[in-house]
TrEMBL record:
Residues 57-235 form the Diphthamide synthase domain. GO terms for molecular function: diphthine-ammonia ligase activity. It comes from the Eukaryota. It catalyses: diphthine-[translation elongation factor 2] + NH4(+) + ATP = diphthamide-[translation elongation factor 2] + AMP + diphosphate + H(+). Its EC number is 6.3.1.14. This is Diphthine--ammonia ligase. Transmembrane segments: none annotated. InterPro entries: Diphthami_syn_dom, Rossmann-like_a/b/a_fold.
Length: 267
């Protein structure tokens, strides 16, 4: 995807997309891509972001063989193939600090790919301003198309753009075991989420999930991976997946072990 050089309009800034393969990073990519400008509306307090030229996807990952249970690297690689956009990995660590580790990676993106913008799918500041600090002194500006967007609008944008995603991980103190089982590995949308929240509250001790859970999972309730979207040239699907449990210092989680990952033609 080459930068726009039409002399009748300004050069479109080259952007890196902070890419997990989840619904938010994929939606952010669509919101800054020129193909979808005429089809998009946002709340009156959330104007459309500037059109950018996404020239590279970046995955910030820990070093070594560790893999995110919610965002398997093999899955992300296949999504990058489906998008036809190069994917680069920037390894992050506490040496010397995580912030400086990010800065090194962002500076390298600017040097190697000429990017001046870093697009993320962040909706809320769950990292106490971490990304704002990470881009400081890099020459790269942070762009957050979903910032503070009402959750129903996020989900309706996903549905209107036909961005199809499955839940890959839930946090069990926020989404109890019975409802998590109904989400893991399933294609979800606003209607499906509300159906499951209602089912749980009607059949268990009510937690009023529709009001206590962030529907976009911004506070760790759930993570996702996209299987299809307008920018994909093909679908990326999982076959023969299984549901697993894990414990960490941060809590208990249910997650999808995707089994076989495959690229298939669009239906």
């Amino acid at each position: 995807m080459d930068a726009v050089t039409n002399t009748d309009r300004p050069l479109v800034a080259r952007a890196a997309i902070a890419f997990t393969g989840g619904k938010d990073s994929v939606l952010a990519l669509h919101l800054v891509s020129h193909q979808f400008r005429s089809a998009l509306t946002t709340p009156s307090n959330s104007p459309l972001p500037a059109t950018l030229n996404p020239v590279v996807l970046v995955s910030f990952r820990p070093p070594g063989d560790s893999d995110f249970k919610a965002h398997k690297h093999e899955w992300v690689q296949l999504q990058a193939q489906a998008l036809g956009i190069p994917l680069v990995i920037k390894y992050i660590s506490a040496d010397p600090t995580f912030e400086e580790s990010y800065r090194r990676g962002i500076r390298q993106l600017a040097a190697d790919h000429g990017v001046t913008k870093l697009v993320t799918g962040d909706i809320e500041d769950v990292g106490e301003g971490f990304m704002d600090r990470a881009v400081q002194a890099t020459g790269v500006d942070l762009v957050r198309p979903l910032w503070k967007m009402p959750r129903p609008h996020v989900l309706r944008l996903l549905q209107s753009l036909n961005i199809v995603y499955v839940v890959t991980l839930t946090r069990l103190d926020k989404l109890p075991h019975p409802v998590s089982e109904r989400l893991i590995g399933h294609v979800v949308n606003e209607e499906y989420l509300l159906e499951q929240f209602k089912w749980y509250d009607e059949n268990h001790e009510s937690l009023d999930l529709a009001k206590t859970v962030d529907w976009a999972g911004e506070f760790g309730e759930m993570h996702s991976m996209v299987r299809d979207c307008p920018l994909f040239h093909c679908q990326v699907v999982h076959l023969n997946g299984s549901t697993c449990m894990t414990e960490s210092q941060f809590g208990s989680y249910m997650y999808l072990s995707p089994g076989e990952l495959r690229i298939i033609p669009k239906q």
